[in-house]
Write a structure and sequence with these properties.
single chain, transmembrane, transmembrane helix, MetI-like_sf, Sugar ABC transporter permease, 306 residues, 0% strand, MetI-like, mainly alpha
């Protein structure tokens, strides 16, 4: 091949590569622009506001550095919100996981009305939780609520469920579990459908012919990726809980049900301490990113092992 031909081929390669690069930038550009406008710039703005003493509506502000974060660590209400959020997540995630898997196994083992049961359990996830919170408020009313009336009818003690410090957080966790259960159920049903029948046949040949044996040797190991995905989704939803707190309890009684997002809302839009609320938003964002990073690492580890 002549030197002139080599030069021509190189120029063609450069031109082709440049065209492909431009096409790639053109395709990726809109998505990068939206990420910049909708995520990166707002996150940077929140971080900047967190370093100020800005009050919503004020025309002036002062740079105070990390003073807001220092104040948060000494704030009893913030510590309560952090503890309540962690406790809420620890109640909602395991209960949703166990109940979702149990219901999926029951529905899949049945022979009729599978579509009906799926729709019934998925409806709470599709319904506006703000509307359903009002229904729950009526059910849990201390005097005329159906829950207390049923308990009184069978001779069991009643309670003011949403106004007692000992019951309010577990009740909110019950509502959160009920709302996320449909999603977990549908995901587990999809995972059960994807398990090959040959695995169960092979397990039966190896002696795992009992229900518990099949569950331990085939079903649960096969559902591990689905279970991890359910944990990730439900955990992120639980950390972002706001509407049921705002509608049902307002964080009370005595901050027994205040959570991070409600604390952010209260500081920013009720007390108008926007800089302080932005500091809570930064901490919330750091927690969510850390959890997502840990869960992604776990997923990648399991994928590489398999």
């Amino acid at each position: 091949m002549s030197q002139q031909q080599v030069v021509v081929d190189r120029e063609l390669w450069v031109e082709t590569g440049s065209a492909e690069a431009l096409a790639g930038y053109a395709l990726v550009g809109p998505a990068l622009f939206l990420i910049l406008v909708l995520f990166i710039l707002p996150a940077g703005a929140v971080l900047a506001i967190a370093a100020t003493d800005w009050h919503l509506g004020a025309k002036t502000l002062s740079f105070i550095g990390t003073a807001n974060f220092t104040s948060l660590l000494a704030d009893r209400a913030f510590r309560a919100a952090l503890f309540n959020t962690a406790a809420y997540v620890l109640m909602v995630v395991p209960s949703t996981l166990v109940l979702g898997l149990s219901l999926a196994l029951l529905i899949e083992s049945g022979k009729s009305l599978r579509a009906f049961y799926r729709a019934i359990h998925f409806l709470p996830f599709m319904t506006s939780l703000a509307a359903m919170a009002i229904v729950w408020e009526a059910l849990l009313h201390p005097t005329i609520g159906l829950v207390n009336q049923v308990l009184a009818a069978v001779g069991l003690p009643t309670a003011n469920w949403l106004r007692s410090e000992t019951t309010v957080l577990p009740i909110l966790a019950v509502i959160g579990t009920w709302q996320s259960l449909g999603l977990a159920l549908v995901l587990f049903l999809a995972g059960l459908k994807a398990i090959p029948q040959e695995l169960y046949d092979a397990a039966e040949i190896d002696g795992a012919d009992g229900l518990l044996d099949r569950l331990q040797t085939v079903t649960l190991p096969s559902l591990a990726p689905v279970s991890l995905f359910v944990v990730i989704v439900v955990m992120l939803r639980a950390f972002a809980t706001f509407d049921i707190v705002q509608i049902l309890t307002k964080g009370g009684p005595d901050d027994a049900s205040v959570m991070l997002l409600y604390a952010l809302y209260r500081e920013s839009f009720e007390y108008l301490r926007t800089g302080y609320g932005a500091a809570i938003a930064v901490i919330f964002l750091v927690i969510v990113i850390a959890l997502a990073a840990i869960q992604t690492r776990v997923v990648n580890t399991r994928t590489s092992r398999s």
